[in-house]
Amino acid sequence: MAQNIRLRHAQSGVITTGFYGFSWTTLFFSGFPAIFRGDLITGVIVLISAVVSILLARILTPDDYGKVALVTVFNNIMYVLLDCGIGTALVQKKEVDELDYSSAFFFSIVISFVLYGGMFVAAPYLAAFYNDPSMTPIFRGISLTVAVCGIKTIQQAHVTRNMKFQYFFYSAFAGAIVSTVLGLGLAYMGFGVWALVVQQVSNITVDTLVLWKLSSWRPKMEFSWQHLKGLLSYGWKLLASSLSSVIYNNLRSLIIGKMYTSADLAYYNQGDNLTYNIASSVDTSIESVLFPVMSSLQDDRAQVKNMTRRSIKTCTYIIAPVMMSTAFCAEPLVRLILTEKWLPCVLFLRVFCLGYACWPIITANLNAAKAVGRSDLYLKCQLLNEGVCILLLLATFRVSVEAIAYGMLITNVVTQILDAQLNKKLIGYGYLEQMRDILPTLLLAAGAGLCMYLVIFLHLPDLLTVIIQVVVGLGIYLTGSAILELDTFEYFKDVLAPSIRQKLKR
Question: Fewer Cβ within 10 Å of end Cβ, the chain: N or C?
Answer without folding.
Answer: C
